[in-house]
Structure formats: C-alpha cells, structure tokens
Amino acid sequence: MIAPSVQDLEEVDEFLAELKTLGDPIPLWTPSTRPGELDATWPVIDRAGLGRATLRFRCLSVDRTRPSVSVIFRDRPIWRVDIVDPRDCKPNPLAAAHLGLPATVCGSHSHGWSDNREIVARSGFGRLPVRRPLGARMRRLPQALRWLAQAATLRLTPEQADFDVPPQSALFE
Predict the structure, then answer these.
(1) Residues 6-31: tens digit of each pLDDT
(2) What is each CA distance from 166 to 18, 38, 90, 102, 148, in whole angstroms?
(3) For a 10 Å CB count at each end of the chain, is N or C smaller?
(4) What pLDDT is stored for residue 172 in this prediction?
(5) pTM for the whole thing?
(6) Could you tell me which of 27, 23, 16 has the C-alpha nearest to residue 43?
C-alpha cells in the first residue's frame, strides 16, 4: 500500500470534525457480495454534498447479533464499530499500548480514526488494526450507530438512530 499524502489525512480529519447528516431514504438490507452476509449502505451528506462518504453496515445472514458499521470516505474505510460477544477477545497491535489501550480487547470495540491515523499515515488506507473497547453494554446496532454518530460528528434523526439489522424472520421472506 502507498502511504497517503498529508493532504489526504487532513481531509479525513476535516471530514470527521464537520457536522454531517445522512441521506434519505433509510437503506435496505440486501445480500452482500460476500457470501453469507447482508449489507446496507447509507450516503453521508457533508459540506461537499453527497458522494464522498457512506456508512456501510454488515451482518451475517444467519447470525445477526454481530453487526458492524463502517465510515467509508472516498472509498476508504476510516472508522468501524464491531458489535461482538463479550467473550470474543482479539489482540491489539503494539501501537495500541502507546495510546493507553489494552493488549487484548474483549467484546464490542471501535477501530477509530484517531487511534489508527498514524498507522494509516505509514502504511496506507485499508487497515484499521487498533481496537478501543466499548464496554459490555454495547450489544446492538442502534447503540453502535448512536455512539459512532457522536464520535464522528454525525447528526441523526430519531428514525435514523433506530436503524437495526433485519429480523431473523426476514430470512424466509
């Protein structure tokens, strides 16, 4: 991967700092290009309008208890929140220790821009390896969406804030 320019990094910083909203309508979940997954994409409206960024949601078709939501800016992932079982533990890279983050993260977590910015600056866009724990109470997609919206300066309507994975009964429709 090619290291991004200082301008690329600053553009992401500015995008995350500015107030943003989501486009209409609320997205529909559809089968993903990845087998066994569902996804939904929601356009983000920023000072440049539509087209620079989206929220991308993913979940497994058969187990919808572990969804994720990513901020995609200019086709590059810059932030992701993963909802996982509190017993699911993953190692953090050494860079996490310099941020005061644990060596192992269990449960739901964020792969935030500020935690991964220096890694992206050195290695290029694509990977966000540093995890920040979000706590055992973060168990559902609407909670993650609200948390991410606050962290990334995204204003949600009440209807948008309740966006969730499709019900399991939708498997048979």
Answers:
(1) 999 999 999 999 999 999 999 999 99
(2) 30, 9, 27, 33, 20
(3) C
(4) 44
(5) 0.94
(6) 23
CB 42 within 8 A of CB 26: yes
Q: What is the DSSP string of 24-80?
A: SSPPPPEE-SSTTEEEEEEEEEETTEEEEEEEEEEEESS-TTS-EEEEEETTEEEEE
Alpha-carbon distance 26 to 157, whole Å? 11
| Sign of the Cα pseudo-torsion (64, 70, 74, 78, in order) | negative
Domain boundaries, the chain: 6-157
Give the span between the Cα atoms of 89 and 95, in whole angstroms. Answer: 17
CA distance 54 to 39: 12
* Strand-pair partners of 5: none
Instruction: Read off the pLDDT of residues 105-122 as tens digits, 9 standing for 90 and up.
Output: 999 999 999 999 999 999
Whole-angstrom CA distances from 48 to 5, 12, 79, 83 are: 20, 13, 20, 30
Measured on CA atoms in the order 100, 89, 68, 145, is the torsion positive or negative? negative
Q: How far apart, in Å, are the Cα atoms of 145 and each of 56, 67, 110, 148, 150? A: 11, 11, 11, 5, 9
Helix residue spans in 94-157 (DSSP H): 113-123, 141-151
